[in-house]
C-alpha cells in the first residue's frame, strides 16, 4: 500500500474489533457459540435456533441495538454477558497492532478508540488485552446513542472531542462505517484486509486495505 502522509495527519481514530483485535472471537461467538448455547438453554435443536436467530440478526444489523448486550439478553432471554466469558480465551490482538499503537503515540499523534462495542464488551476485552494506555479516549457509540454507521455519530464525536476531519486517519474493518466517515469528511480512510485470522482476505472495494501494521510506520 502507499505510504501515509503522516505530516498531514494529527488524529488517528481506530476501531477495535477486526481492526486492533482479531474478529475471530466475535465471529465465533455470534455465529457458533451463542446459537449453540441458545439451543441448549431453550431446549431446541441447533437448526431451530438458527431459524429463530438469523432473521433477528439480519433485522438488527447496523443498528445500535445490534451491538448492545442488554438488548440481546432481553430479546433472546439468555445471559449474553456470561456467555461471552465462555469464549474469552479467543480474544487476541492482531499482529503488530501494539507496535503500531506505540509508534503513533510516540510520534505525538492524538489516538482515540471509537467502537460500536457495548461498554461491557469493551471492558471484557480491555481486561485481556492492554489497550487503554495507548489512547487519549476510549469511546463507545453507545455513549452517543448512535452507531458509527450513522452521520449523527460523527457529529457527536466532533462535538465531544473537537478534531479536524481532513487531518484525521480512520481505520475500520466495516465498509458502511468507512463510507459514513468519508461522507463526514474524514480525510484518510483504511479498511482491513484480514479482520478475521481464520478467514481469507476481505474485499474492501473502494478502500485501500491494510494488511500489515508495520506497513503504516513508513514515514511516521
From TrEMBL:
Pfam family, one: Hydrolase
Keyword Metal-binding recorded: yes
GO biological process: DNA repair
Tagged with keyword Cell inner membrane: no
SUPFAM superfamilies, sorted: HAD-like (SSF56784)
Tree of life domain: Bacteria
This protein's GO CC annotations: cytosol
Any GO molecular function: metal ion binding
NCBIfam families xref list: HAD-SF-IA-v3 (TIGR01509), PRK14988.1 (NF011564)
Record's protein name: Haloacid dehalogenase
Species, as recorded: Pseudomonas endophytica
